[in-house]
Amino acid sequence: MKKPDKANLPQKVCLVCGRPFSWRKKWERQWEEVRYCSERCRRHKTTISTRTVPPSCE
């Protein structure tokens, strides 16, 4: 069985930090709902309207 090429995986942009992130196996069933690249960005989701980059990602 051939592994998929990592360059061809779907990508999204994190709503908090603006960084691109790729599809992961653990997100297989909920890829449409994934909006954040990490737990840290998910916790800072309320800062979207007040700040473009959370302090932890600078």
Overview of this structure, please?
With 58 residues, the chain is largely without helices or strands. It has one domain (7-47). It is built from one helix and two strands, in the order E-E-H. It has one helix at 39-43, and strands at residues 11-13, 20-22. The chain has a two-stranded antiparallel ribbon. The model has no long low-confidence stretch (mean pLDDT 82).
Short structural description:
The chain has one helix at 39-43; strands at residues 11-13, 20-22.
Q: pLDDT average, as an integer?
A: 82
Helix % is under 10%
Structural class: little secondary structure
Alpha carbon gap, first and last residue: 40 Å
Give start-end ranges of low-pLDDT stretches. Answer: none
Explain the layout of strands and helices.
Blueprint: E1 11-13, E2 20-22, H1 39-43
Antiparallel strand pairs: 1-2
Give the tags:
58 residues, little secondary structure, two-stranded antiparallel ribbon, 1 helix
